[in-house]
Amino acid sequence: MPDTDVVIVGAGAGGLAAAWRLTTQGLRVVLLDAGRYYTPFRDYPQTAADFELRPFPYDPVRDEAGRPRYGFGSAQPVGAEWDRYRSFNRGQGRFVTAGHRHYHQYAHVRGVGGSTLHFDGEAHRYHPHALEMRTRFGVGADWPIPFAELERYYDTVEEQAGVAAPAANPWRPRSRPPVLPAHPLSYASARLRAGFSAIGASLLPNALAILPQPYGGRPPCNYCNSCAAGCPLGDKGSADVVFLPAALATGHLDLRPNAVALQIEVDARGRAAAVVYRDAGGTMQRVGGPYVVLAAGAVETPRLLLLSESTRFPHGVANGAGQVGRHLTETLFWWSIGLLPDRVDAHRGVPIDGTAWDFAVPQAHADGTVGGFRVSTAHGAAGLRGPVAYAERLVPGFGLAHQRRLAEIFGHAVALLALGEWFPNPQTYVDLDPRLRDGNGLPAARITSHLGDNERRLLKRMADTTRSVLAAAGATELVEETSALDLFSASHVLGTCRLGRDPATSVADADGFAHEVPNLAFADGSLLPSSGSGDSPSLTIMALAVRTADRLIERARGSERDGSVR
Amino acid sequence: MRNRRAEESSPAGPRWTRRSVLRVLAGLGLLATGLTLLKRTLLRPRLFTPSQRETLAVVLTTLLPDGEFAGRRRTQLLERVLPLLQADTTTQRGLAAGLEFLEAQAGAHGAHSFAALGPEQRTTILTACADAADGTPEHFLYRTVRDRAMRVHYADPSTWGPLRFAHPPQPRGYPDYWTAPRA
Questions:
Q1: Which of residues 391-420 of A touch B (CB under 8 A)?
Q2: Domain-located, residue B173
Q3: ipTM surpassing 0.90, yes or no?
Q4: If we measure between CA atoms, which residue out of B103, B1, B18 comes closest to residue B55?
Q5: Is residue B181 assigned to a domain?
Q6: How close B26 gets to chain A, by Cα (Å)?
Q7: How far does the CA of residue B64 sit from the closest CA of chain A (Å)?
Q8: Which of A238, A347, A360, A418 could form a disulfide with A116 if both were Cys (CB 3.0 to 4.6 A apart)?
Q9: Tally of domains within chain B
């Protein structure tokens, strides 16, 4: 008798979505997560006066013992020809003074809810063409899934999460109307509409898993603009809020926080037999079942596979073709913060409340650059939430002049975020760090990231666009700009166990199961073969996870029928 | 009655009694406590000297002067920033080198200490620190002290009045987010 029907590693967007689907369909699930369970009102103290000094209570850079969580590979040179595009702010100067990119952080959260605990609630659908980049433009990889099928799963998770979106968005067509009406733009973002219009773009309310009205037993948002620090109300559709209660209510979910997966065991037939983990008390445990689903994110999932060497898989589970950890992609980012002549108090609202999708259709530009990008009003996501951000970052110098200037400009700053497509390249991947070890003495993941020429050209285009919008809106000064050009600071990491029809160039088949291990599936960002046109990936991760869960249920029931179940 | 003392020292060798076990455990406990205290003493960051504290207080006054706005005294900045500045030995060593630079500059300005300089001269020297190359002790001092000071100072609600910033994000939120800011 197996311990359970399915073992899932990782309780983030994908792991919880899969667990919800599986348990509500009657399967027993053991769900492991390396992090803890967070209690919103206790853990997200946004009522404190020093709220700006209290980020989400998880350090993505160092662990509890002060060790770096991740290693980083070679750093890409950044020449003087890019000086106009280097990250800086008026308070602190240039962020990176060296002549190469700086690895700042992989902004991942371990815990029940995963990185949705600190996400800004964006709930984006990919454009249909984003699934066909190889066919249409000869770059990246096609998805082995038709968009129409993916859209059905978008509908499912949007309904569960309570997504608020504009009824009409010509750049993201949809077959069914949104579940909830969009949030009105904030005053600050509405103030920027003229800037978007001047460059021929339209600013629409963003698609958000943030509630404008009560829904599913959750309260509406009160527009505190602090999603990234954790939502104390529960209106934000983080995975722990959206999927966990219903999964627990089935009685089929065995949730095990603080359980660090260390290895996947395989049996003599090359099937995943069990997951070995260290439990909350520090004791080594083992849990097995007919199916194992990996949902630890696009860095930790390939790490776990690579750590799990055996006679059958000498280079790691499912890595016979050397594809595990390859094809790492992100969303390219460019931030511009400007000062308006009038006060707009952009600390009010939701963190990313408006988006112009005009450039976010996958495309080939006249200069040969391929890929789209979107531009969003993202004041809260930029951290413009209170006096500390202004004093430290936006106002130069010190003394009385600093105090006077701060009083003059407070409430005048607005932030634009452009996110764009990043195609996989051979210099961008995840592997095991040869030196860095974690608390269990195992090699940490190492991230190596290099921008291709296409990405650099797209970044220039993104920068020119955000600067143009701000200038057209009347901004008098750029006070901060940050970008992927000289900083690695990623949360949307994707593609390291990507879907594909060819086992020589992908890790997972069209159902989300490993080509080489028929009972091992994936339910996280590692599956996504492309990064869209700057779309936030959470909704797509959830949709794919539910789809993989459905495929797993079909396989399990098929096995029962033909008697092959273990 | 059998002689217990004779039994304890029997030719068969030493025997563990409750008392001897307790003695060994107490000894081990004392040894562990001593080692822990020694480790803490050796590894604990050295506190700034009174002279360095005085210089840091003057640096903070220059960065955030008391006057028409809430300054460093109003928010008890020195007391709140010092623990951050001496949280680890690397930071403290770097700051000590930066403080030496300030004192050397004060000497070049004809004063016996940075604290003895007038506000304009202090501002000139700190501006030079701000403009110095990344990686120099003076630039490290400026960036480290300035950034921490700004963070701690403006996290204090007593500084919010001139900015017309009303309250933390929760529990009230900003349900009026789509309207023009109130004058």
A1: 391-392, 397-400, 402-404, 406-407, 410-411
A2: no
A3: yes
A4: B103
A5: no
A6: 28
A7: 5
A8: A238
A9: 2
